[in-house]
Write a structure and sequence with these properties.
One of its GO terms (cellular component) is membrane. InterPro entries: Peroxin/Ferlin. This protein is mainly beta. Helices cover about 10% and strands about 30% of the residues. The strands form five sheets. Strands 6, 7, 8, 9, 10 and 11 form a six-stranded antiparallel beta sheet that branches. Strand 1 and strand 2 form a beta hairpin. The longest helix has 25 residues. The protein starts with a strand and ends in a 39-residue tail after the last strand.
Length: about 290
């Protein structure tokens, strides 16, 4: 991943107070300059480095579903010794990114609500549905309130059902046609944006976004059958030019085919009642 930071006047840059390397893994923990990758013996590069954006961000969360549970978190905060009030980000997703309030969430075209908004009590929460932590950006929520807790949240859920896929498809086609040119340009650049590196990334740039990253791929193929796939990543420490670390890293493995194949998988589940357990522990039930 190539990482950049947005600075006033300067704009997007890989210099400045980055809290992760300019080139790193997806977590930002391993320094990974793309010119320091060496293929292992028995392997060779099959292409140059190319931008490979995460395509899953182009799809909606409910894509392919006929029923979907919409959820949003109500967030509250307080100063020590004061009462709970609405937080600066009163409504967020599970990652802490801001969302519209539950009353402002629009029902997508072709869908209908099955129920009303309700507090999710089926989690580790108190009787009011709240879970508590010291700081929202740190996380570590728990169901028991302590005096040092300064943030709390509760999850609101509402189910919706797809009733007219034709309307949804027509609406999606119109929306996709309008956004196609814009998204194609964004996909060519390949950048993902977020307010901070530890928050969820998204495709479209927002006002609060201060960091961005993009993924690079390079294809490596085997020349020798059975050759180890671990390649040596040579990393030079900028603070000590004489100190060079060598890390063995396993690449992501893909299978490529000349044409698609279709298979049918059949599964059978057999059940019975009033059968004795198959062992003395009693852990094996009557489901075979």
């Amino acid at each position: 991943y190539e990482n950049q930071l947005s600075l006033p006047i300067v704009g997007w840059t890989s210099k400045g107070p980055l809290n992760r390397p300019k080139w790193s893994d997806s977590q930002g923990k391993v320094k990974s300059p793309k010119d320091k990758f060496d293929p292992p013996p028995g392997w060779r590069w099959d292409s140059e480095w190319y931008i490979s954006p995460e395509l899953s961000m182009l799809y909606d969360k409910d894509a392919g579903h006929k029923t979907f549970m919409e959820d949003v978190y109500e967030v509250q905060s307080r100063m020590p010794g004061t009462r709970w009030v609405e937080a600066s980000r009163p409504w967020t997703d599970v990652k802490g990114d801001p969302l519209a309030s539950r009353t402002e969430i629009q029902l997508p075209v072709g869908w209908t609500w099955e129920d009303e908004w309700d507090i999710d009590l089926s989690r580790a929460v108190d009787e009011d549905g709240f879970e508590y932590c010291v700081e929202a950006t740190i996380g570590g929520y728990g169901p028991v309130e302590k005096t040092y807790h300064l943030c709390r949240r509760r999850r609101w859920v509402r189910n919706r059902r797809l009733v007219d896929s034709t309307k949804q498809k027509k609406h999606d086609m119109r929306s996709k046609a309008k956004a196609k040119a814009k998204k194609m340009g964004e996909m060519k650049e390949g950048w993902e944006y977020a307010p901070l590196f530890n928050l969820k990334f998204h495709l479209e740039e927002r006002t609060m976004d201060l960091v961005r990253r993009r993924r690079w791929h390079r294809k490596m193929v085997a020349e020798t059958l059975g050759a180890p796939c671990f390649f040596s990543l040579q990393v030079e420490d900028e603070d000590d030019k004489e100190n060079i670390e060598s890390n063995l890293t396993a690449p992501r493995m893909f299978l490529t085919f000349d044409k698609p194949y279709k298979y049918q998988l059949r599964c059978y589940i057999y059940q019975a009642r009033d059968l004795l357990a198959g062992d003395e522990s009693g852990l094996s039930g009557c489901t075979l």
